[in-house]
Amino acid sequence: MGRRGIKEYRAHEALQLILADRDHEPLSCPSCGHRTIQRTPRRRLTAAWRDPCRHVTLRCGKCGRQAVYVPRNVTQPSDSQLLAR
Ligand SMILES: [Zn+2]
For residue 2, how far is its CA from the centre of ligand 1 (angstroms)? Predict the structure, then answer.
């Protein structure tokens, strides 16, 4: 134990948490069941959702496990549209 103090979820646990976050459902730790999940960036900062490259970190406040993902449900403007002016 104690690999740099950062614990990660197993793959299926991380997927469960990520899908819940993507669908804007209440988050709870798939490993220990704790309901305090620290989300970075916070959901209220809607501007963050416009940056498709922004990583979202979900970390359990109890067991310390974390999952990181990049939101893919954000509509990305195509490069051609940006260059069309
Ligand atoms: Zn936990």
Answer: 16
The SS3 assignment for 11 reads: helix
3-state secondary structure 11-67: HHHHHHHHHHHHCCCCCCCCCCCCCCEEEECCCCCHHHHHCCCCCEEEEECCCCEEE
Per-residue pLDDT tens, the chain, 85 aa: give them.
445 677 999 999 999 999 899 888 999 999 999 999 999 987 765 555 566 567 889 999 999 999 998 875 433 444 444 444 4
Note the pTM of the prediction, 2 decimals.
0.70
| Cα(9) to centroid(ligand 1), Å | 9
Domain residues of the chain, as ranges? 7-73
Q: How far is the CA of 29 from the centre of ligand 1 (A)?
A: 5
Distance 6 CA to ligand 1 centre (A): 12
